[in-house]
């Protein structure tokens, strides 16, 4: 496996991805363009079927993860370069990670609330995100558990890996100074994260954008320990979906 990584790293594409700014920008563009194409190709087929719509969005996210992973392989990078490790930790470290994940959850919720307040002042009314695509969860325990499992994998894990680990690291490598690069990476990743939630409406874009800003800051402040953010995202997704399931009652 190590020999394979060294071979991929020494390929022309791998070298260009490490040194050529146009290749770096092209990689970022490819990740999101591929998802956009998948969604647009299947959009006429899904029509108003919310379950199929979620399936297409999840498929697009999985494709993004694959492209990100290929870029890492071509560079000779490992998951640890993005702050993701699957090594066992001590119970003390586990408790610390859990505590920090709760702190990140609180900060992300604060960011979400700030976005809500800003939009309420702009629009003049306390609008809420459009979550009608999840109406199929109401009172349906089977779909709720299936959706929750898929969301944990594709959203909780996938979004943190793509929008925090991938975007922040790659934007930081575009030739800016260390400090400027980090600030630009956090801000741009949060904007892209908000835009990725376009199906939630304008309010949802702003809310998730500010939430992404809080998560991006935490990613850097906590030394890119991605599991902390993934766990916080798991809590957020559960908090989001549980009331939608209970709405029928």
Low-confidence stretches: none
- The global form is globular
Cα separation of the termini: 52 Å
Number of E-state strands: 0
Q: Which percent range describes the beta-strand content? A: under 5%
Q: Which structural category do the helix and sheet elements fall into? A: mainly alpha
Number of domains: 2
**What integer is the average pLDDT?**
88
| Computed CA radius of gyration, to the nearest angstrom | 19 Å
Helix content: over 70%
| Pattern of helices and strands | HHHHHHHHH
- Biggest sheet overview: none
Number of helices, where a helix is a run of at least 4 consecutive DSSP H or I residues: 9
How would you summarize the topology of this molecule?
Elements: H1 2-9, H2 12-19, H3 21-46, H4 50-75, H5 91-123, H6 141-172, H7 178-195, H8 201-221, H9 226-246
Quick summary:
By secondary structure, the chain is mostly helical. The protein has 9 helices and no strands.
Protein architecture, described:
- There is one protein chain.
- By secondary structure, this protein is mainly α.
- It has 2 domains: 1-77, no CATH class; 91-249, no CATH class.
- The chain has 9 helices and no strands.
- It has helices at 2-9, 12-19, 21-46, 50-75, 91-123, 141-172, 178-195, 201-221, 226-246.
- The protein is globular and about 50 Å long.
- It starts with a helix and ends with a helix.
- The model has no long low-confidence stretch (mean pLDDT 88).
